[in-house]
Amino acid sequence: MDEKRALYGEDEIITLEFDDGTTFECGIIGTFELDDKEYIALDALDETNDVYLYGYVPTDDDFELLDIPEEDFDRVAAEFDRLMDEPIE
């Protein structure tokens, strides 16, 4: 976990809090747009290689995460995969 944590700056790590009260730290991979909506990709800072995708709504001084509707998730995940496969310029 410390190796993954070192990939992100302090301001690039967020803590997710779930309805049951559990918390989970993630590194912010980045944000992207699809169909005029913004999304965020988060890297689980644990021993897994899990990536979490959420809707992303910037606010004045922070942002809000939204669950992606089930009917949209596959398209959002495919767009994230496409972006990750693009060569870095």
Write the topology of this structure:
Layout: H1 2-5, E1 13-17, E2 23-34, E3 37-44, E4 51-58, E5 63-66, H2 70-85
Antiparallel strand pairs: 1-2, 2-3, 3-4, 4-5
Describe what this molecule looks like in 3D:
- With 89 residues, this protein is α+β, with helices and mostly antiparallel strands.
- The protein contains 2 helices and 5 strands.
- It has helices at 2-5, 70-85; strands spanning 13-17, 23-34, 37-44, 51-58, 63-66.
- The chain starts with a helix and ends with a helix.
- 10% of the residues are buried.
Helix content: 10-25%
Unreliable spans are none
Give the overall shape, derived from the CA principal axes.
Answer: globular
Mean pLDDT: 91
Structural class: alpha+beta
Terminus-to-terminus distance: 28 Å
User: How many domains make up the coordinates?
Assistant: 1
Gyration radius from CA atoms, angstroms: 13 Å
Q: Helical element count? A: 2
**Which sheet architecture does the biggest sheet show?**
5 strands, antiparallel
Strand-and-helix sequence, N→C? HEEEEEH
Number of strands: 5
DSSP strand content: 35-45%
In the sheet with the most strands, the strands line up as 1-2-3-4-5
Main traits of this protein?
single chain; 89 residues; alpha+beta; five-stranded antiparallel sheet; 5 strands
Q: Outline of this structure?
A:
This protein is an alpha+beta fold. The chain is built from two helices and five strands. The longest helix has 16 residues, at 70-85.
